[in-house]
Amino acid sequence: MEITWLCILVFMFIMYAMLDGFDFGAGILDLFIARNDQESMLIKRSIGPFWDGNEVWLVAGGGVMFMAFPKLYASFFSGFYLPLMLVLWLIIARAIGLELRNMLDNQMWRIIWDRLFGVASLLLALVFGIALGNVIRGVNLGGVENGESLFEPHYFFSPFWTTMAPSANPGVIDWFSLSVGIVAVLTVMIHGGNWVVLKTKGELTSRIKLLNKRLSIIVFVLAVMSFFAMPTVQPTIVRRFSSNMLLMILPALSLATLILNVLFQNRGRELGAFICSSLFIAGMFVSAVVGIFPTVLPSTNLVHPDLTVFSTANTSYGLQVALKWWLLGIVLITGYTIMIHWVYRGKIADENVTYSQYH
């Protein structure tokens, strides 16, 4: 049951990354690509009916972690307290940026909320990427200093940043986690760009397609470079993939979808490009999980062992009972997601409709 629930948890977070990921990407593009108010409105209208529903997957994923892996949940929310508070405030900032933009018919007012929406989207993608980098790299479980533990074995405290150099007590932001965060930002820009191209038309989409091609090349190179940096950061992943070459299919297919994303865009296959960027996000996430399995949070010291899927899981009875309720909940969430995408399928037609009317 523990592995079943790990798969469920990974599925929930992948769905969130794919769905809210295009929201983040659209917000970042709105910050850097939109040349006028009309283009800014097109980008916002492309995500208008979807963004708040997409965030349900994050709440549901957190609920799954709380129920299935309570020790992991407690460790995360204590050790990453400040970053999680930043996530909360940034989510609020994105929401009010969208909702308050058209409250006043004033150019300065709209610019302020547009900038807030774009900056919050960028920082959210960066923070989530940094969080993933921390999970891959590991944390100082137990807060070991000079061979002595300051906390219980599954708790930790990471300073927000350090000197960026490798150490036994790394900060939330170091050279590796920041690198993962930057790749995450570029990835959601590609993903969000594919979504905006799928939902809009005109000169804006041409510029986004060109940007996506360039970003895809950059992300491809960075993804390949990360493999060579992995022995320094997390040799477990290297040993796992080296010992079973079949597992190399996962990152290889993920990189292939990144290339296919560009090919589909060149051929005008907009839906295919969006599916490819979704698969790239899912593939890289699954590759990271498989690489450290059965660990779910590595330890950077030799005093306390890694937190694993088995050491952090709830009781077998609790997992069995919860599975029935999860099946009911996932039907409702999936049904709503499918319905809203079906109702608002196709490209945006009327360029004169405001976001508030459309939403």
> What is the overall silhouette?
globular
- The arrangement of helices and strands along the chain is HHHHHHHHHHHHEEHH
Number of helices: 14
Uncertain stretches: none
Strand order within the widest sheet? Answer: 1-2
Helix amount, in percent?
over 70%
Structural class: mainly alpha
Q: Write down how many β-strands occur, each being a DSSP E stretch of 2 or more residues.
A: 2
Indicate the proportion of strand residues: under 5%
Largest sheet properties: 2 strands, antiparallel
What is the CA-based Rg, rounded?
21 Å
End-to-end distance, in Å? 41 Å
Integer average pLDDT: 86
Care to give the gist of this entry?
This protein is an all-alpha fold.
List the helices and strands and how they pair.
Blueprint (H helix, E strand, L loop, with lengths): L1 H31 L4 H11 L3 H4 L1 H13 L1 H10 L1 H20 L6 H31 L37 H25 L3 H31 L1 H9 L5 H18 L3 H23 L2 E3 L9 E2 L7 H28 L11 H4 L1
Antiparallel strand pairs: 1-2
Helix pairs in contact: 1-2, 1-4, 1-7, 1-8, 1-12, 4-5, 4-13, 6-7, 7-8, 8-9, 8-12, 9-10, 9-11, 10-12, 11-12
Describe the structure.
This protein has 359 residues and is mainly alpha-helical. The protein is built from 14 helices and 2 strands; from the N terminus they run ααααααααααααββαα. It has helices at residues 2-32, 37-47, 51-54, 56-68, 70-79, 81-100, 107-137, 175-199, 203-233, 235-243, 249-266, 270-292, 316-343, 355-358; strands spanning 295-297, 307-308. A two-stranded antiparallel ribbon has the order 1-2. α1 (2-32) packs across α8 (175-199). The longest helix is centred in the first third of the chain and has 31 residues, at 2-32.
